Each structure stands twice: as structure tokens, then as C-alpha cells.
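Aim 2 progress update. The chain analyzed this quarter is reproduced below.
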Amino acid sequence: MDKVKLSAVSRIEKGNKVNSGRKKGLVPAVIYGKGIKTEMLWVKAMELEKLLAKSGESVIIELSIDGKNIRNVLIHEIQKDPVRGTLQHIDFYQVRMTEKIEAEVELVLIGESPAVKELAGILVRSVDKLKIKCLPADLPSHIDVDVSKIKTFEDHICVKDLNISDKVEIEIDPETVVALATPPRSEEELSALEEKVEEDVTKVEGVVKEVPVEGEVAEGEKKPEGEAPAPEKKKE
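Predicted C-alpha cells:
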């Protein structure tokens, strides 16, 4: 089992007041779990970012609260700023080491596919994560997918082909295809993609072609030369 350590301190700030902590390089967090009281915390943004970059989200964390209270937790949810991508909030879920948990584990592609390297194929990845169930101690941080096994366009890797411990339950059909390689596009297909298809918008459902009123000229048309303007009606 991959296990990492992270420090946190208790937090009392709520609402808009948490912005002052963010400006100091802290991330507001909460910890909750089965049979425990929810607590508010602060964690250092830099330490959290390093942890995520090195170990990912699917890992058991030894979370030390106020330097003494150690909990085994999983990252349940991370909120980021949609524009800057900075960490805004994090939820920790406290686990019991004797009870199975459900988690999503990332699939990591390793190796190089001969079908891609030698046959100019295109690698297609159909599954990014697997939902699994296991004891916290058996939780993998990721699952490797060795694409070097894809040597031809007929080869593919299924869930059942992955190297997964028998202590881990996979909650997906083992015949599900994870990765494969497709042939490169032919010149005819590429030429077809480059062609621009011009479509008459008046044929599109919901678009009505404007019919000019007698004596008027439709937009984009020129009035015939020599044609006298329509006489104005006299006001009675």
C-alpha cells in the first residue's frame, strides 16, 4: 500500500473569511467519515500540491491534525479555481482500515505500442479510471496499462488483462476494452476532411427565407437599373 503523510491544523473560519487563509498559502479542508464528527481544517497548499503531483488522489494519507491527532484518510473531493486552477477546497474521508472502501483508481499507460511506432497507428484509450473495492491497505495508487502488448490493429487490452491484485475487486465488466490502436487515415479520408461543405441555410429546419414585399428589394439584391421607384401614397 502506498501511504503518504500530510499535516493540517484546526480551522474556525467560515464563509468569506477563508479567503484570508488562501492568501497566506493555505487551503480550507474538512474531514468526515462514518461515525465521526466533521471537522474544519487548514492544509498548506504547497505541501498538498506536492502530494498530488507525486502520489495522485487515490492514496491513503496519514493526516496529522494539530501535530498529534493522526487519521487515515482518502481524498474525497477537490475543488479548484476554474480559471487559475488553484486549489480552493479539499474533502478528506476518514477510513477504517478493517472495512472495505470504494475508490476510483487512475490507469497509467506505460511502454510503447509497436502498432503505433511501426505501423503509424493511433492509440485509443477508452477507460481513464477504474472503480474498485478493497481494504484501505490494499488500495493501489494507480494501475499500469502496458501498451507494448498492442502490436497489431487487431490487438487490444481489456480489464481482465491488467495486473491487479486478487485482493482488489473490479466493479466493471472484465471484457471492457481499455486500450487499442486504430489504422492511420487514408489519403481519401484526409482529403474528405479538408473539403468544405457549403450548405444552404434556407434548408435548415427553423430558418425561414425572407420573401420581399412587392416593390421592395431583398437584402443582398440590387434594384434593376431604370426602374422607377414606387409612387408614394397620398395622405388623406
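Residues 177 and 234 are 79 Å apart (CA to CA). Residues 197-201 have pLDDT under 50 and may be disordered. These observations will guide the mutagenesis experiments scheduled for the next reporting period.
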